[in-house]
Amino acid sequence: MTATCLQFLSFVVSALGWVGILIATSTNSWVQTCSHGAASCRRFDELGSYGLWTECFTSFGIYHCKNLADILEIPAYVQISRALMITASILGLPAIFLVLTALPCMHLGSETESVKHKRSLLGAILLLCVALCTAVATIWFPVGVHHEKHLYNFGYSLFAGWIGTALCFFGGAVISCCTGSAADRTENRYYYSSQGSSSTTSPTHAKSVHI
């Protein structure tokens, strides 16, 4: 019962983490930049924002946004962060589906428990890969911005990515642990049941031979 509750809780947590990763991928408020001193930027409201898809800045009191569409001009850390976040977003869909269909309350035809455990373990591995891709992207991007521009603060998109990373990592780790323990219990139950059946049938068989 405890393993079932943990598996269901991990599914909910992982789904929320994947939603956070989708929000981080689709929005552009990753970091706030400042081309001058921090005090000057706050005083004259000249803070800019930099994300995976657009760069926004304030010039003469007017807010401008520029799409980062030219691949040849985009820095390498932006391109790699894009690829990692897109990969994490795509891998999250089959991971959530596998974990959902592997819940104890879900049954697909006449499948055995070992098949459900394998599907749950595969979903957990995919969730860990999602967390790894997002962690690399959300750490590498602000470091790259810090070296190229004047990093002022982190944006809500980056926080959404960090929260999604933590939730997916937690969900994948717990699901993998619950899957292993459930598989061991199933194997032990099958072993003891087979031993019990053999012990009950052996006296009857011996009696028939004696007669």
Automatic annotation (TrEMBL):
Transmembrane segments: 83-109, 121-141, 161-183
Subunit field text: Interacts with tetraspanin-3/TSPAN3. Interacts with OCLN.
Gene name tied to this protein: cldn11a
Signal peptide: 1-17
Subcellular location: Cell junction, Tight junction; Cell membrane
Region (Disordered): 192-211
Pfam family, one: PMP22_Claudin
PROSITE patterns, per the entry: CLAUDIN (PS01346)
Similarity comment text for this entry: Belongs to the claudin family.
Role played: Claudins function as major constituents of the tight junction complexes that regulate the permeability of epithelia. Plays a major role in tight junction-specific obliteration of the intercellular space, through calcium-independent cell-adhesion activity.
Record protein name field: Claudin
UniProt keywords, alphabetically: Cell junction, Cell membrane, Membrane, Phosphoprotein, Signal, Tight junction, Transmembrane, Transmembrane helix
